[in-house]
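REQUEST
  id: r-88c1
  op: predict_structure
  target: Poliovirus receptor Nectin-like protein 5
  payload:
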Amino acid sequence: MRCSGLLILGLVLNVAHHLETRDQSEEVIIEISPNITAVLGEDMYLSCRYVGERELERADWYRHINSKAKSKGLERIKKRGPFSRADFSGPDSLNNLTLKMNVHSVDLEGEYICQFETEERIVSDSTFVTVVAQPDIQILVSAETINSTRYQSVSCSAIGGRPTPQISWLVKGLPVSDQPFTVNMTETVHSNGTSTLRSILRFPTHLQDEDSVSCEVQHPTLPSPKLTTVRVETYARPNVSIKAEVVQQGGNDFWVVSCISSGGKPDTDISLALDIDEELQRENDTDSDTQKSSVYLLATAYEGHNVTCMFDHPKFTHRESRALTLPFFYFSGVHLLELGINSGQSLELQEGQREILISLQVTGNVPRYNVTCKKDDGLLPEDIQLVDSSLTVHGPVEPHHAGLYECVVTYHHLKSVLQFNVTVKIQVILPVPPTIQVDVRTEHRHKLIECSAADAVPAANMSWLLPEGVSEVSWFNFTSRNGSHSVRGSLLLPACLPWELTAECMINHPAFEKPENRSIKLPLCARPNITVNSSTEWKGNEKYTKVDCSADSVEAAITWHVGNNVSHVMETKVQTDGLVLARSSVHFLSSLYAGQNLTCMVEHPSLKAPEKRTIHIPVHTAPLLSVSVMRQQDSHLWVAVCDCRGEDVGTNLTWILPESAKGQTSLQSEHEGRAMKVRLTYQFPLARHEGQNLTCVYQFEHGITEKLSVHVPRYFISTVRVLNHTTPLKSRYGGKPLAQRLTLEEKHQHQKILLQIVGNVPQFELNCKRSDGSFVPMEGLAMVFQSELTKKDEGMYTCRASFYHHVAAVNIQVEFMSQDTQTALVSMVGISSGLALLSILIVTLWVCCKVKSRTKYKKQESLSALTTLMQEPGSPEVKKPAVTEADSNKEYAQLVSYSIVIDVKSTV
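RESPONSE
  id: r-88c1
  status: 200
  body:
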């Protein structure tokens, strides 16, 4: 009984412990990544973290092993510390077993277990890794011909995929049908766990109208199906026709029958047949996408024959044919056309007509024909010509042109005849008076006078009447139109005459009772307008002058003279432009004729004596260059001025400045008679170029340069001195003076403090002000106190002298003292000084007595102590740091008492 109770108690405790362990195990104390799909060749992460509160003693990764070589079990893939496999990277900590794994093989697929071990128990969790591989897609097109039928095959391969990809085909965006397409699918498994799927789409080319097909591959590694499109060969249905035309070769006419196929792909098989059994010689021609097969048939031998073209093409379900029948040739008639109007079988012409065209209209289907014509069974008149199928009467029409004309049209064995009668109507001609007109114009140094008598019947007679002794050139032109006649007379005279001249044109005509005349009056030639212009240029280092002399008239003779002699060295060119201008130019070295007069002499028929124009050749002087530097009024800038004056001066002036210099420059030029003045200015602050040289450069046109420099003075203001009796006011922390102490007498008027400026500035600005900033009246270099001085006038004064950026200043401590105070102070100073001198004398005598009783070493020590005494008037403990000038105004009030300290050093 007792043993049964203990057994029941143990059972109850075991169940309770089991329930407690179960409750604890159900707690989420491990966070592990869910099932993972990894891509072959890429990196993946196995994430596992312990989030419980117990302290870990051990943490490991395991994976299930399930292969034929090993029994199912667990393999530890990591140990504490360095990893046992190179496939995995290290974890962050014992609580975080996150691993980075390179998926280089499909063998890494499987279940991975993350295990953590504490002092009390072991907890674990697992995840499954699936390895996939993205396939490489390749597509290839090939073709073959079987039994005259062309087939195409498109191969689409998905190489190295895991799991096996899916391949489908699309044509025009739709899945392929069974006809006319066939699909063959093969799969190859590789040793690395991947596989290759290959799909081949095959079809006859002539049944496929689309020029492209698409391969669609689906796989888990692809976010969407991958579509690859490739172009394939297609056939196009051709347009076929037959055509016949006549050509001439070797004097014979041939039918050229052509079988034409255009726009087809591939080429069309063309054959040609006649309705008779005869071997034909063909000519084939291919131009771009057009095929042509032609035969030549003698036109007269194949009239009425049938010709058939037959076309074979993969796009045709059966052979196509085109046929035509060659026509029989015939003449249907010949008709008469005169000036384009059908006039029947008779034609009436008007006497005197010219250029009459009589055309024959031949109807029929012959390719060409020959025409022969005759008159009254004889030849045609000489002034009637047969050209092609037209008769031309050049005229004028006369009575002998009337008669019976016959024209025969033939083509091989065909013939057609046309007869027509021509009559000539006699016309009475009445005289028509001419229209008379006279015109004058200038041409090539001559006056051309034209007199015309136009539209007259019959033609008018014309002649010229001129004064005796005038030589002329004249001619006459005759023209006819529509039975009327015109005559034009031309008279050529010199353009410039030294006297007035009247020319008459005389016209005779049956319509005039007496001859008509027209007169033209030519005036005396105008005097020429003469102008002379000159210019200069530099060639190398030499100056040349060019002078142009022009006269606005023809017949002007121009010569050149220098002094009283004709220059034979100069090159003279005369240029003329009708009646507009006669010009002569001379070009010479300026130095050859410097200072001389050059004369242009013009001779002209209108001038009684030659006219002269003179130009002076100046003596060349070099330009004068000058530079200066100066202050500018009402401006803080200085200005450097560079002047260049002379003849033929250009504007090529420049300042040579330092690279960092930036200033304002300006260029001005003006003429002073024949000379020219150019000024280049440069504005700058004095501080920029003080003490430097500024150089101005003039560049001559012929390459020579001239330079001139100017020095910018260097100024300074070293100090501002006080000429009144002063004492230095020093800082008690150092020996540097803070100000000059000056004592003025109280209750005195018009007291002055005299100042002196030490420096080399030409002028300066001087002002003095109190410590509160108010200014003190100045008289020249003196600070003036006009009224009686009071206590409020005591204090620190600052006097400042300035010249541009140069500045110097002095601080003056002004104090007042009455006459009684001054006397008492002098007495006290005298007594103090006497007592001090007496004390020094006693100490000196005592030291001298002690010196005799000391050894040489002690003697040197006492002398060193005495020397120290004499060099250090103050104790080192009371020395203060030096007071700057900026603090002088704060310290000067404390420096009103002095003391004499005597420090006697002794070894006794």
